[in-house]
Amino acid sequence: MIVLALHPEWQEMAREEVLQVCGQKEPNFEALIHLKIVNMILNEVLRLYPPVISLYQHTYKETRIGNIHLPARVDLTLPMLLIHHDPELWGDDVEEFRTERFLGVSRASKDQLALFPFGWSPRTCIGRNFAMLEAKMALAMILQNFEFNLSPSYIHAPRTVMILQPQHGAQIIIHQL
Ligand code: HEM
Q1: Distance CA 55, CA 165 (A)
Q2: Closest alpha carbon to 89 in 116, 67, 70
Q3: By the 8 A CB rule, do 172 and 151 touch?
Q4: Which of 118, 133, 139 to mutate to test the pocket of ligand 1 (most atoms within 8 A of CB)?
Q5: Where does this protein hold heme (predicted)?
Q6: Closest residue (by CA) to atom 1 of ligand 1?
Q7: Closest Cα to atom 7, ligand 1: which residue?
Q8: Exposed end of the chain (fewer CB within 10 Å): N or C?
Q9: What is the CA radius of gyration of the chain?
Q10: pTM
């Protein structure tokens, strides 16, 4: 909601899509899978602000990943936030909110695995589909009924306390449509 308040043009496009697909009806599963723009927005938000900013792994035995050879008992850090903000992977506009980069997921970055807010391994998040569905459902219902913008008191200061979150809260002004 913060990002869509900062980018009202995308808020409007997302609302148009929701109204086109669901009208004023409560969105159902069928409708939610047709929300392409909302899905692109969620991907771009998860790229810029992944709730989990790093993943940690430990090799319990000698391991090979591609052409990297790792001995046993090595701690590995996968710096998700850095990878999501790497201009070599995403281009010079990496810090900008540019939803259109996800128009074709394979074209969004140089490496298809560069976006991994839910992890990428046999231990990938089991709640992934549920979380995306829930986010789409909530956002769609909010967009059907409300327009929102940022309060002048909002300060953009994401920081990590277990997960990435707005340090001073998310003061949003909501207007019923
Ligand atoms: C936006 C929401 C969420 C994000 C960004 C997220 C992210 C992640 C990440 C990064 C991992 C670690 C994956 C790895 O080690 O490779 C993980 C694991 C996990 N997540 Fe989520 N998650 C979310 C929502 C949920 C929800 C809603 C549930 C449950 C309903 C859930 C359940 C789990 C579980 C059980 C694991 C451990 C899987 C395992 O180690 O086998 N997550 N999640």
Answers
A1: 17
A2: 116
A3: yes
A4: 118
A5: 125
A6: 131
A7: 118
A8: C
A9: 18
A10: 0.94
Q: What is the pLDDT of residues 101-160, one digit of tens each?
A: 998 756 788 888 899 999 988 889 999 999 999 999 999 999 999 999 999 999 999 999
| Residue 48: Cβ within 10 Å count | 18
- How many angstroms does the Cα of residue 60 sit away from the middle of ligand 1? 22
Instruction: Name residues whose C-beta falls within 8 Å of residue 155's C-beta, 6 or more positions apart in sequence.
Output: 167, 168
What secondary structure does DSSP assign to 60-87, as a single string?
Answer: SS-EEETTEEE-SS-EEEE-HHHHHT-H
**Taking a C-beta distance cutoff of 8 angstroms, is the pair 78, 57 a contact?**
yes
CA of 65 to the centre of ligand 1 (A): 22
pLDDT tens track for 60-110 = 999 998 899 999 999 999 999 999 999 999 999 999 999 999 987 567 888
